[in-house]
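Take a look at the protein record below and tell me what you see:
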Amino acid sequence: MINCNRVNKKSILEAIEDFVLHIFSWFLDINVDIFKNNVDKKYSIKLFDKKLINLCRTVSVVELVNEIIMKDKNCTQREIYYKFYNIFREQNQANKHIKDVCNILGYERSSLNIHASEKGCIAGLLILKKGYEILNLREYENGIMINEFLLNVDKIESMANYIIVVEKYSVYQKLCENKIWNILPSILITGKGFPDLSTRKIICELIQTFQLECVYVGDFDPHGIKIYLNYKEGIKSNDKNNLYACKNMKWIGMCSNDIVFFPKESLISLTKKEKNILQNLKNNKKFLSTSQLKNEIIQMDRINYKFEIEAVQYLGMDFFIKKYLIKKILRKEWLT
C-alpha cells in the first residue's frame, strides 16, 4: 500500500559508479582524478585498512544497493544480513556496514530502498487513506506493525487527543485488548523497548500533524527511564538538531509514589549495574538538569527498588487503565 518517495535514481547510480572507480584506482595503485562531478569527495581511510574483509562487506552491500535501485526493488536490513550470512557474523555488523554505505554514497538508508525490519506497533484512532484503500487501525485487534512510510498516504484522519507510548509490548497488548482508545481518544504505540527509527518518525509526524499530547508509560527502573530519554533525545545526526526527537513527550508513570499499589514481594532490588545507570542518568544535564524526572531518579536510588507495570495487574487492568493511567492523563499528572 505504501510506496517510497525515491530520490533521483540516476544520482544514486552515479555515486555508486564513483565509489567503484575509487576502489579500482586503489587496487591498481593509480592516481587519477575520477571524481569529475565532485572533486571534494573523500572516502574514509578505514575502507582500506588491513582487514580486507571490511572492504568486502562494504562492496557487497554497495553491489546489492546497485541491484535494487536498478530494479526498483526494496529490501530490509534483516534480508541483507541473511543474504550475506557468510560475511556478516551478526545483524549489528550488517547494520554498521549499511550505515557506512549510506555515508559513502551520501544518501539516507530509505533513499537506497533499504528499510529497517519492522519492530514497533501502532493501534487506535488512526485512519490512513490511499486511493481507494482505507486502513482503519481500530479494526485490527493488536494494531499493525510500523514501517518508515506508513504515513506516506493521500489522507490521514484521527479523532485522538493523545498519543500513548508504551515501553513494553505485553502492556501494549493489554491496552489493545481493552480498547483504551474507546475510553480515552488516543493512538497507542510501542517501540518494544528502545525504539527504532520508524517508530520515532511516526510519533513525531503524528504530533506535528494533529498537535497531540504525547505521554510515555514505562517501568519504574533505570532502563525504563533510559528508553524514555532515548525518545526525547532522538537520533544523532551530522547537524546540530537530532532526528525525530520527541522533546515534548511527558512521563506519566510508573513513579516512586506508585509503590503503594505494589505488593512488597513484587519490589525488586536494583543491581550494581542499574545503580551505575542511575548515576549516569543523574549526570545527564541536557534533559534532567531542570526535569521533574530527576527527583524520581533520586528516589529510586534512595529506596534501592524498582517495579514493573505488570505487577500492578493484580489490581486488575480496569483499575490500571481507568483509575491510574487515564486519570493521570486527564489531570495532567505527568512529569516533564
